[in-house]
Specification:
The structure holds 2 protein chains of 2 kinds. Chain A is an alpha+beta fold. Helix content of chain A is 72%, strand content 8%. In chain A, α1 (2-65) runs antiparallel to α4 (142-229) and α3 runs antiparallel to α4 (142-229). The chains are: A alpha+beta, B alpha/beta. The interface between A and B is medium-sized, with 19 and 21 residues.
C-alpha cells in the first residue's frame, strides 16, 4: 500500500512538475521575448543618442572650424559620449546575441549578425573620425585642413547614415518582437490552461484509482472484522493483489485470517474445555452425590453399627439375664409334666405345660438369637469359599424351596476371610427371607456370585412381594420386621449386616414393592496370611 | 504532517516576497562641491587621448582640494596665454617653452610635473624621418623637404628644430624647407612622417617612445635624426594670483599622489609613478636657447595663432 501511495504521489508530482515545467517554459519564453524587446528599446534609445551626439559633434566641429568658437570641450564630449555608446553597444551586442540564441530565434540571429557587422563598420569609421577631428582641430596647414574637413564630414555622414539604417532595422525588429510576443502570450495562455486542466484531471483519476485500491481491500477487511467480532470465526478476508509479498493490506488480511483461525481454534478448545468442565462438573456432582450417599450410608452404617453394637450389648445383657430363668422354667415345666403324668386332667394340663414349654423354647430361641447377635468379638477368620457356603445354605433350606425355582450362577471365586458358620447363617437368613417373600411357594430365586477387582460379590434376587420403599432403610435395624407378629425376631438382617460388616464387607438391599428384592453382598478377597480381624 | 507541509510552503512564499527592491543611489550632499578650478590641457597628443589621460587627475584633485577641478582642452598651444590672462583657466600643464613665455608675460607659478617609471621627468626634442628617405642628422639633406612642426609656442615642436638648424649654420629656417606644416600635436607630426605627408617631423622623445610601443611600424619605418637637450616635461602651473591655500593644497596633493590608491590610479593614466616639484630655474637652459635664437619671451608672437 505504501508503495502504491508513493508511486501514485510520485506520478502526480511528476505530472504537476511536467505541467509546471511547461508553464515555466512558456512564461520563460514570454519573459525572454520581453527582455529582448526591452533591450531592443534600450538599443534604439542609444542609437538615437549616438545620432544626436554625432550630429552635435559635426555642428561643433563646423562652429570651431568656422571660428565661432575655440572651445573644443563640447566637441570632445560629444565624441567621447559617442565613443562610450559604441563601447557599450559592442558589449551589448554579444549579450544580446546570446539572449537571442537562447530564445532560438534564428532569423533574428541572422539579422543581428548583419547589424553587428554594420556596427563594427561604424566603430571603425568612428576611430578614423576621431583621428581626423583631432588633427583637424589642431592643425594650421590649410591643405590639411581642407582635406581633413572633407574627410571628417564624409565620415561623419557615413556614420550617421549607417546608424540610421541600424536604428531603422532595430525598430523593425522590435515591432516584429512585439507581434511575436502577442502570439506567444496567446499561445502560452492556451497551453497553460490546457496543462492545468489535464494535470488536474489526470491527478484526480490517479487519486481515485489509488483511493479505490486502498479503500476496497480495507472495506473487505472491515467486513471480515465485523463478522469475526460477531463470532463467525470461519470468516476469511481475501485480498486480490499481484504482489502479495509487497502489499501491506494483503499482509494485514493474511495476519487477520491467521488471527481468526487461531481464535477459532481457541474458541473450539474453549468449547471443548467448557464441555469437559461441564462433564467434569457433572461427574464431580455425581461423585459428590455418590460420596454424599456413601457418606450417608456410612453414617447410617455407623449409626446402625453403633445401634447394633448398643443393641447387641443390650441383647447380650438381656439374653444372659433371661437365659437362666428360661432354663429354669423349661426344667420346671418338664418336672411338672413328669409329676402330673398320672393326675386327673393330665391331658389338659399337658397341653398347657407343652404350650409353656413351647413359649419357653421360643423365648430361649430369642435369647439365643440375641446372644448370637451380640457375639461379634469372638469371630473365627479363615479362608472360605463363598460358593461352597452358598451351596451349604441351599442344602439346609432345600426342603423349604418347594415350587420355588432356584437359579445359580456361581463364578469361580477366590477365597474370602470369614467364619463359614456365620457366613452360612447370612445366606440362610437371606434365602429364608426370599422364601418367606413368596408365600405361594411359587417364584424364582437367583443367586449370582462374581469377582470384582479385590472383592467377591454375591447377589440374591427373588421375585417375592418386595418391601415398601419407606421400609427399605429400616430393614437392617434390629427387631424390624415386615412379617406377622410372632414370625421371626426381626434380627435376621441385622445379624447379616453385623456379620458382613465384621468382614469389612458391605450388604445392600434393593426392593420394589410387589416386584421382588435383591440383596447384594460384597466381601473383600482374602489377604493371604491374615486370619484375624 | 500535511498541515506542516502547507505551513512550510506558505512561509517560503511569504519570505520570498519580502526581499527589498534595489535601492536608488542617493547623492550625498558632500558630493556637491562649490567652486571650480579649471586646468587647461595642451594638444600635446590626440585631444581625446589627452582627456583620457588627465581626467583621473582632475577627479583626484577634486577630492583632495574639495572643489570641482575641471579639465579644459585647448585646441592650440597659442591660446594658453589668453586663457591665463582672461582667467578663464586657473592653471595648465605648460609645455616648457610655453611656460617661460607665459611666465615672462603673466604671473604663473610652477607646482609639479609627472615622473616616469624610469625616474625621468624631462624630455628631449627630436626630429624624425622615414628610413627609406635616407635622411640623417646632416641638415644639408633637409633642404627643400617638408617638415611637420607642432606650434611656434612649443620647444620640441618648433624651438628645437630652429635651434638645431641654427647650430648647423642655417638661419633662414622658413625658406630652408620646401614646406612647413604646423600640425598642432606631436603624435600628428610623427604620423604625418609615417604617412608620408611630411619628410621630417618634430616631436618629443617621450611621445615617440610611447607611440612606438603602440605601433611597431613607427620603429620599423622611422628614425630619429636629431635630438635636443633635456628640458622639464609639461608641468602643472597655476596663476600667481590664485588663492594661496589652493596653490599649497594642490602642490601638496600632487606631491602625495603616489601614496594613495586613487592617486596611483591617476598617475597610471598619465603614465607616471609620481609627481615632483618643478622649480623655475630648471627652465634656465631653455631660456638660454631662446636667447640664442633671439626670441624675446615677452613679445614673441604666438598667442593669436591657432
Amino acid at each position: 500500500m505504501k508503495k502504491r501511495l508513493i508511486y501514485g504521489l510520485a506520478i502526480v508530482l511528476f505530472m504537476f512538475s511536467f505541467g509546471a515545467a511547461i508553464v515555466i517554459k512558456n512564461l520563460d519564453s514570454i519573459v525572454m521575448n520581453q527582455r529582448l524587446i526591452n533591450e531592443q528599446d534600450l538599443r534604439i534609445i542609444r542609437y538615437n543618442d549616438m545620432l544626436f551626439q554625432l550630429k552635435g559633434a559635426q555642428a561643433e566641429l563646423y562652429r570651431h572650424q568656422s571660428g565661432y568658437t575655440r572651445n573644443i570641450d563640447t566637441l570632445v564630449n560629444y565624441i567621447e559620449s559617442f565613443d562610450d555608446s559604441i563601447t557599450y553597444l559592442s558589449k551589448q551586442n554579444v549579450a544580446y546575441m546570446n539572449d537571442v540564441v537562447c530564445g532560438r530565434c534564428h532569423s533574428m540571429q541572422e539579422r543581428l549578425r548583419s547589424l553587428a557587422e554594420m556596427f563594427s563598420e561604424v566603430e571603425e569609421l568612428s576611430n578614423n573620425y576621431k583621428e581626423n577631428v583631432s588633427i583637424l582641430i589642431t592643425t594650421r596647414d590649410e591643405r590639411q585642413v581642407g582635406f581633413l574637413e572633407g574627410q571628417a564630414a564624409n565620415t561623419g555622414d557615413t556614420i550617421i547614415g549607417q546608424l540610421e539604417k541600424i536604428r531603422h532595422a532595430a525598430e523593425k525588429m522590435k515591432t516584429e518582437m512585439r507581434n511575436k510576443r502577442s502570439v506567444l502570450i496567446n499561445r502560452s495562455r492556451t497551453v497553460i490552461l490546457s496543462t492545468i486542466f489535464i494535470t488536474i484531471a489526470l491527478s484526480g483519476l490517479i487519486f481515485m484509482f489509488i483511493i479505490r485500491s486502498i479503500t476496497v481491500p480495507i472495506n473487505a477487511l472491515l467486513g471480515g472484522i465485523q463478522k469475526i467480532s460477531s463470532g463467525n470465526f470461519s470468516e476469511r478476508v481475501r485480498i486480490n493483489t499481484k504482489t502479495p509479498d509487497k502489499d501491506e493490506i494483503w499482509f494485514m488480511a493474511e495476519t487477520f485470517n491467521a488471527m481468526a483461525e487461531k481464535l477459532g481454534v481457541i474458541m473450539a478448545e474453549k468449547d471443548g474445555l467448557l464441555q469437559t468442565l461441564t462433564g467434569f462438573n457433572e461427574e464431580l456432582e455425581k461423585r459428590v452425590k455418590e460420596a454424599t450417599e456413601e457418606l450417608k450410608r456410612t453414617q447410617e452404617n455407623m449409626v446402625r453399627n453403633e445401634t447394633l453394637a448398643a443393641v447387641g450389648t443390650l441383647a447380650a445383657g438381656i439374653a444372659h439375664e433371661i437365659n437362666n430363668p428360661l432354663t429354669n422354667a423349661s426344667l420346671n415345666a418338664q418336672t411338672l409334666k413328669n409329676k402330673l403324668e398320672n393326675s386327673v386332667g393330665y391331658e389338659d394340663i399337658l397341653k398347657k405345660v407343652n404350650a409353656i414349654g413351647r413359649n419357653v423354647d421360643k423365648a430361649s430361641l430369642i435369647a439365643r438369637e440375641l446372644l448370637q447377635f451380640s457375639r461379634k468379638a469372638e469371630t473365627k477368620m479363615e479362608p472360605v469359599n463363598i460358593n461352597a457356603i452358598i451351596d451349604d445354605a441351599i442344602a439346609l433350606l432345600q426342603y423349604k424351596f418347594r415350587s420355588i425355582r432356584l437359579h445359580k450362577t456361581l463364578s469361580d471365586l477366590p477365597q474370602v476371610m470369614g467364619d463359614p458358620v456365620k457366613l452360612e447363617q447370612v445366606f440362610v437368613n437371606i434365602l429364608e427371607n426370599s422364601i418367606q417373600a413368596m408365600p405361594d411357594g411359587d417364584g424364582d430365586i437367583r443367586i449370582e456370585s462374581s469377582r470384582n477387582n479385590g472383592s467377591v460379590n454375591v447377589k440374591i434376587a427373588d421375585t417375592g412381594i418386595g418391601i415398601p420403599e419407606e421400609n427399605i432403610s429400616k430393614v437392617f435395624e434390629p427387631f424390624f420386621s415386615t412379617k406377622d407378629v410372632g414370625v421371626g425376631t426381626g434380627l435376621g438382617l441385622s445379624i447379616c449386616y453385623g456379620i458382613i460388616s465384621q468382614y469389612n464387607g458391605e450388604i445392600d438391599l434393593q426392593s420394589r414393592n410387589g416386584e421382588g428384592t435383591t440383596v447384594s453382598i460384597t466381601i473383600p478377597v482374602a489377604d493371604k496370611g491374615d486370619n484375624t480381624i | 504532517m500535511l498541515r506542516s507541509v502547507f505551513l512550510a510552503l506558505f512561509l517560503t512564499v511569504l519570505l520570498s516576497c519580502s526581499s527589498n527592491p534595489e535601492e536608488i543611489a542617493k547623492i550625498e550632499p558632500e558630493d556637491i562641491k562649490e567652486g571650480t578650478l579649471t586646468i587647461a590641457i595642451l594638444p600635446e597628443q590626440n585631444v581625446f587621448e589627452q582627456k583620457k589621460r588627465y581626467k583621473p587627475l582632475a577627479e583626484y584633485l577634486s577630492k583632495q582640494l574639495n572643489t570641482n577641478v575641471k579639465i579644459k582642452l585647448l585646441d592650440s598651444y597659442g591660446s594658453i596665454d589668453d586663457e591665463i590672462r582672461d582667467k578663464t583657466i586657473d592653471g595648465a600643464f605648460f609645455g616648457s617653452f610655453n611656460y617661460i613665455m607665459t611666465k615672462a608675460r603673466e604671473g604663473i607659478e610652477p607646482l609639479a610635473r609627472p615622473v616616469e617609471s624610469d625616474g625621468n621627468s624631462n624630455y628631449k626634442g627630436i626630429i624624425v624621418a622615414r628610413k627609406d628617405k635616407n635622411l640623417s642628422g646632416n641638415v644639408q639633406n633637409w633642404e627643400g623637404r617638408t617638415i611637420a612642426l607642432v606650434h611656434e609656442a612649443t620647444t620640441a615642436g618648433y624651438v628645437f628644430p630652429i635651434w638645431h638648424l641654427k647650430k648647423n649654420g642655417i638661419n633662414n629656417f622658413k625658406e630652408y624647407f620646401g614646406r612647413i606644416v604646423f600640425i598642432g600635436s606631436y603624435d600628428a607630426a610623427i604620423m604625418a612622417v609615417l604617412n608620408r605627408q611630411a619628410e621630417l617631423g618634430a616631436a618629443k622623445d617621450i611621445i615617440f617612445e610611447k607611440m612606438v610601443l603602440e605601433n611597431p611600424q613607427i620603429k620599423e619605418q622611422l628614425v630619429i635624426v636629431a635630438s635636443s637637450i633635456s628640458v622639464p616635461s609639461s608641468s602643472l602651473c597655476v596663476r600667481s594670483n590664485l588663492d594661496g591655500n589652493i596653490k599649497i593644497a594642490a602642490k601638496k596633493a600632487l606631491l602625495a599622489m603616489h601614496t594613495t590608491p586613487e592617486g596611483k590610479e591617476a598617475l597610471n593614466a598619465l603614465g607616471a609613478v609620481r609627481f615632483k616639484e618643478t622649480a623655475d630655474y630648471e627652465f634656465d637652459s631653455l631660456r638660454q636657447i631662446a636667447a640664442d635664437l633671439e626670441i624675446n619671451l615677452t613679445t614673441y608672437p604666438f598667442r593669436h595663432k591657432k
